[in-house]
Design brief:
Layout lengths: L10 E5 L6 E5 L11 H37 L3 H30 L3 H18 L1
Antiparallel strand pairs: 1-2
Helix pairs in contact: 1-2, 1-3, 2-3
The chain binds zinc ion (ZN).
């Protein structure tokens, strides 16, 4: 039997491909392959946003490491050199942390961790400035 116009507005329950929670879709909506509930779609958007902020700040950290390296090259006194070494070391540590954070964001499927990662990221940004 061909779909009547009425069928388009009939809802059916399908499980989310990711979290498994059932949710409603329109009867005529394609249901092949993966299909995600609103919560999972929102979570995915928040993950993307946070990840791109982290990437942005990684660029800044890399730039500041380069700047310290240049200053280090032209530094004369051992004390100044030491100070730049320390700054480079600190920034590198933060960069490493940010890579770990990116991985965690990518792997999480839980909204509550996104908030936690956001706080971690804010803290990290403060440390690097
Ligand atoms: Zn879901």
């Amino acid at each position: 039997m061909p779909d009547s116009d009425n069928d388009k507005f009939v809802l059916k329950l399908v499980p989310c491909s990711r979290c498994g929670n059932p949710f409603m879709i329109k009867n005529n909506q394609k249901n092949s392959g993966e299909i995600f509930c609103d919560n999972c779609i929102k979570l995915e958007q928040r993950k993307k946003q946070l990840a791109s902020s982290v990437l942005e700040s990684q660029k800044e950290i890399k730039t500041s490491i380069k700047e310290y390296e240049n200053k280090l090259e032209s530094a004369d006194s051992p004390d100044t050199k030491k100070a730049y070494y320390e700054k480079i070391k600190k920034q590198s540590e933060i960069l490493t942390k940010s890579v770990e954070l990116l991985k965690k964001i990518e792997e999480t499927n839980n909204e509550k961790y996104i908030e936690e990662y956001k706080r971690l990221f804010e803290k990290m940004k403060k440390e690097s400035s």
